[in-house]
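Narrative summary of target 7.
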Amino acid sequence: MSGSAEQPDVAAPGRHVWQFAHTGGVDQVLLRSGQDIAHIGELDRKLWVALACPVQGLEFDSRTLALIDSNDDGRIRPPELIAACEWAAAQLRDPQLLIAAGDTLLPADIADSSDLQAEARRILGIVGKNPDTDALTLGDVTGRSELLASLRFNGDGVITLETAGDDEAARAVIERILQTHGSQPDRKGTAGIAREQADAFFKEAHALADWHAQAVSDDATMPLGDDTLAAAAAVDAIEAKVDDFFARCHVAAFDPKAVPALNPAATAYDALAGSAIDVHAPALAALPLAPVAPGRTLPLAGRVNPAWAEALARLRAQAVAPLLGEALEAIDDTQWGLLRERLAPCRQWLASRPATRLGNAADTPPDVLQGWLAAEATVMELLRQDEAEEAHNGRLVDLEKLLRFKRDLYRLLRNFVSFEDFYARRGAIFQAGRLYLDGRSCELVVRVADAKKHAMLAGLAKTCLAYCECTRGKDKMTIVAAFTAGDTDFLFVGRNGVFYDRDGRDWDATITQLIDNPTSVAQAFVAPYKKFIRMIEEQVAKRAAASEATAQASLSTMATTVATADKAVPPATAGQPAALPKLPGRIDVGTVAALGVAMGSISAVLVAMFTKFVDLGPWIPIALVGVVVAISGPSMLIAWIKLRQRSLGPILDASGWAINGRMKVSVRLGGSLSRMAKLPHGAKRVLNDPYADRSTGWLVGAAVLLVAGALVVWGWRSGWIDRHLPESARPASTTPAVTAPAVGAPALVTAATTSSQGR
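Modeled conformation, tokenized:
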């Protein structure tokens, strides 16, 4: 059921029946019973709102998500969530308990077929509760997990020196295993040994014991008993040098002329004499054991190489004297061969010593080995007792898992299979908190790992998004907030606000990146006029700045001329006054004429436009609407299209989700996600702003008068006023001769207008 990738589109007879609600532009399943959770694997994957979500960065218990994430890849997918639901439903007597939530369970609530019922009763008994009437809580289970770390046998499969207690033999073996085979930490972090280390140690110990037993059973191997090992070691230490000495003597016997070459040259002694002589120096040790001569014996003391004097003394005391005789002070080649022959079985036995990590032969004598092997049963029993607790520990983890699933699984389904919590305004698990900025609060706030990478995909949401860097002491994080209501005129990079996370902690928030999109059709209606006014202000500011610069340049030139007048003007001739510097003219006559022509042309155009506008008569309101539509229509159309496309999906997809539906954010929903500042209900404003701008009143009045005048003209031209005036208010009847001028008045106005245009 849960493993199939494709689900049937039509429910077969006997299959679970689902309920759906159309929200966010898609059909979302309603989870209302425990059976819905138990049969979640039967729901067609195409009807799931999400197909994957990250484990990190969500407002959800991370331990519960880790228990659901069975493959530890950091993501939750449908098969893992289905497996969690089916497992939890199978462990409970009634799956409806998953809807009830809470982190407590009675043992009777657990299914009889589950091993967890007995384990729950056992834990209740350990923590001092009644296994029949009391409920097991998540705190009891997690507290028990922490208590396990302090127990002698805690089920981690690792024993320490503390586990051995007062048993000195077991402690000695555990300490030796730690030295030779490494360690593993237990639940408390203390170094200990597991079965793997213990098995390897005792295997090597048995191999060494068998190797020792082989020597004891063969008298030829140990002709000197335990002293044979020392004799063999003495021969091994000097064997190469003795063989070299007798080989040189044989060569000397073959050809006496080779004797000088076989002995050290004088230059070798010159090198030694140049500094303080160390008897252990490598140069001295490289020389022969004794002077080489044909047929000579090897002295074991006296005139021998000082570097090897101690080794020769041990050879005599530990091997030559016990095996060849105490009186020998020198040995020949034959005696040397006999000595090696007597020690050959022992040396072969030593060479066959098993390769272990237990040290050399001196570190592992037979009595020490026997002591270790005597403690083997105790150490292995300690491991067995500790491992026996592992079964309880496994069931303890399953109990924790069941309690967490009972508390959190239903909520996770409402934020994965459907987005019920989000659309019901209960706070979805991807909502990080609330951002206060620019006179409003934003609730659609998501944590972001990489703002630049997130913005590349989130821009497709057609939503106004503000990326903010939040700091709280040394902690930092990045969020993205959706502004879905109000205007965006004062949203810009660098604007500061305050972010409150789901735990109520406040963070300083600064906008670092902005994706601008319309928030409403009303905003789009006034946007062209705001842009037009902004452009006029910018152009006026530029012209004013240019005029100011020109004026400043003129004043600077004039000041320079005045300051240097005595140098620039030539001396006055006799009888002639000094000429004053000519100041630049303030107004040019040609400029005035040009301005007059321009103003006249503009006035003529305005009069013509107004005349044409008045001639529209009853169509004036429609013309006004047409002008407004021509200006604001395109902006409103674009805003309407973008608002219809506004979606939550790209925002979450960029955060690691895999959203299956479009998840539209309607205007009504957007208004609830970004709330504007409003006075509380019942509040009264007791003081108007004494510092409000007073220059706007006449503008409002002029606009009202203009609209009123347009309405009067429309009423006069359309005859509406004449039709609705009472008889007493109408003027007296006149003859046709009197009314004739009135009839011809428009013609005269038209003629006058034409005449003025002609001029």
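Residues 1-6, 733-759 have pLDDT under 50 and may be disordered.
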